[in-house]
Automatic annotation (TrEMBL):
Classification via InterPro entries: Ice-binding_C (IPR013424), MetalloPept_cat_dom_sf (IPR024079)
Protein name in UniProt: VPLPA-CTERM protein sorting domain-containing protein
Highest taxon of the lineage: Bacteria
Organism annotation: Albimonas pacifica
Segments traversing the membrane: 242-265
Keywords: Membrane, Transmembrane, Transmembrane helix
Keyword Isomerase assigned: no
NCBIfam families in the cross-refs: PEP_CTERM
Molecular function in Gene Ontology: metallopeptidase activity
Length: 277
């Protein structure tokens, strides 16, 4: 007897109990105890089989380093926030196991402002310059938090740039944790080579994480087009890559912090520099 999940599981369990009661009532006294044991064993086996089917198979690993960006020697800081378990489920279909170290801090960043808000393009370029070129075979993406971004964008990332696996995103309290996680996944999707759904691919323009305009209910799955892009990305490493610590970028000035994490994406399409989105 295989037990599923949710309402169907409850119905299945109810039918199973009724069936078991009839079998036990009809059994001779000497067989009742053995029958109970057999029924229980079958139920446990069913649950085990269901769990085995639900267990993801990881064929690669990727570290995602959240970066707390601060100004004025730490007077104000912004850290991307995520639900780590939810984020992992988003990448399970791609077979990518995410490694999420504690955030590190960029302590004295100088944002370029436009109308009192952050210029996303300048922030991404300066963030990339501050971190420098990542170590050879780092298999790591870096995503940093920012204050309010100017215009109609809330994040920017290089698309599939192996030597610049970087993204920035507005890390303000405007987003629920679920929305932040979906937006964080969107930025990471760009870093892994996925463009917006419908942009040079056959994916629908809504319903999936890489949709160009976020929906009221955050998407939690990637389109087939995005998964195909991830499969072609050289950024993830083989299983076992992160048996040791995640390597740091070549640039200095990063301090370890035991903090949380956040994320975000673009509200609508903008013209953007080549290789960024």
């Amino acid at each position: 007897m295989t037990i599923g999940t949710g309402a169907s599981a409850r119905r299945a369990i109810g039918r199973g109990r009724a069936w078991a009661a009839r079998r036990i009532a009809a059994a001779r006294p000497g067989r009742a105890a053995a029958l109970v044991a057999a029924i229980l064993a079958g139920s446990v086996a069913g649950v085990g089989a269901e769990a085995a089917r639900a267990t993801p198979v990881y064929t690669s690993e990727l570290a995602v380093q959240r970066v707390t960006i601060c100004v004025d020697a730490g007077a104000a800081c912004w850290t991307p926030q995520i639900d780590a378990a939810l984020l992992q489920t988003m990448f399970d279909p791609a077979g990518i196991r995410l490694v999420l170290p504690a955030p590190i801090e960029l302590p004295d960043f100088d944002f370029t402002l436009s109308g009192g808000e952050v210029d996303a393009f300048a922030a991404l370029e300066d963030f990339s310059a501050a971190l420098g070129v990542p170590p050879t075979a780092a298999h790591t993406a870096w995503i940093g938090g920012t204050p309010e971004i100017a215009g109609n964008t809330i994040g920017l990332a290089y698309v599939g740039a192996a030597l610049r696996p970087y993204g920035v995103m507005q890390a303000t309290p405007d987003f629920s944790l679920g929305a932040s996680t979906a937006l964080f996944a969107h930025k990471l999707g760009h870093i892994l080579g996925a463009r917006h759904d419908g942009d040079g691919n056959l994916a629908p323009v809504s319903g999936f994480i890489m949709q160009p305009v976020p929906s009221a209910t955050p998407a939690t799955t990637f389109s087939t087009s995005s998964l195909e892009a991830f499969a072609a990305s050289p950024l993830p490493g083989p299983p076992g890559t992160f048996a040791t610590a995640v390597p740091a970028p070549a640039a200095g000035g990063l301090l370890a912090l035991a903090l949380g994490a956040l994320a975000l994406v673009r509200r609508r399409r903008l013209s953007s520099p080549a290789g960024s989105s």
